[in-house]
């Protein structure tokens, strides 16, 4: 037993020695790695310290420079105050100018110089026609001015009104009233579309102006509007204006130095005005001077002036009128519908006429339309699509008219009619009823 242990002891001793050497070697390698890592970190810290010192020196130098400039400005201000120089005005330079800014470059001036004169001076190069303008107008302008320049709600009407300038309430449109076409281009190019001013190109503007002219029946759809012919285009109302020379003819007669104090020796009330019981007709031709005195004035209460009579009671027979027969009611409804259709027809009047003496314009006259063969009006140059419809013998009935009014280009592909269609079915029904009344 003891011999066996003695035999094993040298082996165990050698193995222990080997293990000890391995562990020692491992710790030695680990220590070298840690030392290398610490040395690397130390180098980084030293680098950061160097950068921080450099940055601090630069900041200190900058602060010193700024402080010197502040002291320089303060010294100059103190000197100007002492000598009475105006600190709000820049000091003049040797040539006598104020030395502010620089001369504007030609390109900068041109970017702002977009005004156009009546003879066409100032127009940019470009071209456009009504055919292209219809699509641009529908996309950029129709939401306010209507698909056919008829106006939407309170937005301006751009077409029609040619026979209204002598009326009490004239319709002043681009076609009926404006004297120069250059004004149209200038305004559209500067200010439109609403909320997107300045986004139109010159070619788009020429096309929109051409479409407005076409909507007023002043050009055909093939007319090419350019910077070369716009200034020479003669508008419908070009001779409807006069030069206001009253400042030269009349100013000296009525202009005098105004009296500012003690202008009259005595001021007194000579008469008083009271409300009239009835409104005078047409311009007050039956009005008379009111000679009432202060003593004779009526009394005024919360119920109103005492001299105004109470409203006469409505006649009983009016209040108890018998209902009209069904035939009369139907006739009244048809009359009201036709009246509504006449208002809708305003969108069409720029191109179509109805009634006595109706003539062809950019669209055919529409008297006796229902029951008429399509494309059958003498003297009108129809599109190839309508010529084909005429040869086929197609007839205008209520269904065909409703489909056409709702979407002209969808019903008759190839039509020259630019109107995009009526959106409301009620408008289609009303205008159909109105056209029934337009006989030959």
Short recap of the structure:
44% of the residues lie in helices and 2% in strands. By secondary structure, it is mainly α.
Tell me what the structure shows:
- The protein has 14 helices and 4 strands.
- With 440 residues, it is mainly alpha-helical.
- The chain folds into 3 domains: 88 residues; 113 residues, Cytochrome Bc1 Complex, Chain D, domain 2, CATH 1.10.760; 111 residues, Cytochrome Bc1 Complex, Chain D, domain 2.
- Helix 10 packs across helix 14 and helix 12 packs across helix 14.
Record keyword descriptors for this entry.
extended; 44% helix; single chain; two-stranded antiparallel sheet; two-stranded antiparallel ribbon; Cytochrome Bc1 Complex, Chain D, domain 2; mainly alpha; disordered N terminus; 440 residues; 14 helices
Work out the helicity level: 40-55%
Number of helices: 14
Q: What is the number of domains? A: 3
Average pLDDT value? Answer: 78
- CATH C-level class of the largest domain: Mainly Alpha
Placed side by side, the strands forming the largest sheet appear as 1-2
Strand portion: under 5%
Per DSSP E runs of 2 or more residues, the count of β-strands stands at 4
> What is the overall shape?
extended
């Amino acid at each position: 037993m003891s011999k066996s242990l003695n035999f094993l002891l040298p082996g165990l001793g050698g193995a222990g020695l080997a293990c000890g050497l391995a562990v020692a070697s491992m710790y030695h390698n680990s220590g070298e790695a840690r030392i290398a890592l610490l040395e690397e970190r130390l180098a980084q810290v030293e680098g950061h310290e160097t950068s921080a010192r450099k940055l601090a020196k630069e900041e200190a130098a900058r602060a010193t420079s700024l402080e010197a400039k502040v002291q320089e400005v303060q010294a100059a201000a103190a000197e100007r105050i002492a000598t009475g120089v105006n600190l709000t005005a820049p000091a003049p330079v040797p040539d006598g100018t104020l030395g502010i800014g620089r001369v504007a470059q030609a390109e900068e001036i041109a970017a702002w110089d977009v005004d156009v004169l009546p003879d066409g001076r100032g127009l940019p190069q470009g071209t456009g026609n009504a055919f292209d303008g219809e699509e641009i107008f529908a996309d950029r302008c129709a939401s306010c001015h209507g698909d056919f320049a008829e106006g939407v709600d309170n937005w301006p009407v751009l077409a029609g009104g040619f026979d209204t300038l002598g009326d009490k309430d004239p319709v002043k449109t681009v076609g009926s009233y404006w004297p120069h076409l250059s004004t149209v281009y200038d305004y559209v190019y500067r200010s439109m579309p609403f909320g997107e001013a300045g986004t139109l190109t010159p070619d788009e503007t020429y096309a929109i102006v051409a479409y407005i002219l076409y909507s007023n029946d002043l050009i055909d759809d093939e007319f090419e509007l350019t910077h070369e012919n716009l200034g020479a285009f003669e508008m419908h109302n070009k001779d409807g204006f006069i030069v206001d020379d009253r400042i030269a003819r009349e100013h000296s007669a009525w202009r005098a130095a105004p009296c500012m104090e003690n202008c009259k020796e005595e001021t007194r009330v000579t008469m008083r005005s009271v409300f009239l019981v009835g409104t005078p007709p047409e311009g007050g031709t039956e009005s008379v001077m009111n000679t009432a005195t202060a003593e004779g004035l009526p009394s005024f209460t919360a119920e109103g002036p005492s001299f105004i009579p109470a409203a006469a009671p409505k006649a009983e027979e009016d209040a108890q009128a018998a209902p009209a027969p069904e035939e009369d009611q139907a006739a009244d409804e048809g009359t009201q519908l036709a009246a509504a259709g006449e208002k809708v027809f305003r969108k069409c009047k720029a191109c179509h006429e109805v009634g006595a003496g109706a003539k062809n314009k950019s669209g055919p006259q529409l008297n006796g339309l229902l029951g008429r063969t399509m494309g059958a009006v003498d003297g009108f140059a129809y599109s190839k699509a309508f010529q084909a419809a005429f040869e086929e013998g197609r007839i205008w009935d209520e269904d065909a008219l409703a489909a056409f009014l709702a979407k002209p280009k969808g019903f008759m592909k190839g039509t020259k009619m630019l109107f995009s269609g009526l959106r409301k079915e009620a408008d289609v029904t009303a205008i159909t009823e109105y056209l029934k009344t337009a006989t030959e």
